[in-house]
Design brief:
- By secondary structure, the chain is mainly alpha-helical.
- About 70% of the residues lie in helices and about 0% in strands.
- The chain is built from 2 helices and no strands.
- The two termini are about 30 Å apart.
Length: about 70
């Protein structure tokens, strides 16, 4: 038998899928912020809101990743 591939539970697969979606959304927000910042008169309020949303997404990604790979105390 080949035990090289780890066994993933349905919950882990769902969490990984959710993290993937959040990472894509995070990247989209990053691209939006970048595009808005290059406008002749950037909308600073909108940029601040997008940055805040991006930070919230990042926190959610970290939280989900910690559920997938919990800390191991050595």
């Amino acid at each position: 038998m080949n035990d090289d591939t780890p066994f993933l539970t349905e919950e882990e697969l769902a969490l990984r899928a959710q993290v993937k979606v959040l990472r894509l959304e995070h990247a989209d927000l990053d691209a939006s912020i970048e595009a808005l910042s290059h406008m002749p008169v950037p909308d600073q309020l909108l940029i601040a809101r997008l940055k805040r949303k991006k930070l919230i997404l990042r926190d959610e990604i970290v939280k989900l990743e910690s559920r997938i790979l919990p800390d191991i105390i050595a």
